[in-house]
Amino acid sequence: MQNITNKIKNLFNKKNIQKQSVINPHKHWIILLKVFFVILFCLVLLSIYLLYKIKNDEIFQVTPTIQRNSTVLKYNLLKNVTSAFDQKAQNEEDLLSNPPTFKDPSK
Q1: Which of 19, 43, 61, 65 has its CA 20 to 30 A from that of 32?
Q2: Res 84 pLDDT > 90
Q3: With a threshold of 0.85, does the pTM exceed it?
Q4: Displacement of CA 31 from its chain's centroid (Å)
């Protein structure tokens, strides 16, 4: 039990904390090299995959989807709008062909 408590005390000792915070360039360069090679390996795999897809003409293939014939417009509302515009056009034609006459109020 005494041995475990000593180990725990040594973990939080100031000298041990200072020793861990010291920069070790060799260790960091090795970590950087490992990360670089992992990224390089992933990029090579991705490029081989894309090359395979391009070779088989599958890269830009779109699977056709079956479209339903759904109507977006409501036909009764469309008929109401077109009839309103037809009525306005008819009123305009009537006014142009038979202009209204007004009495002169000064007479």
Answers
A1: 19
A2: yes
A3: no
A4: 34
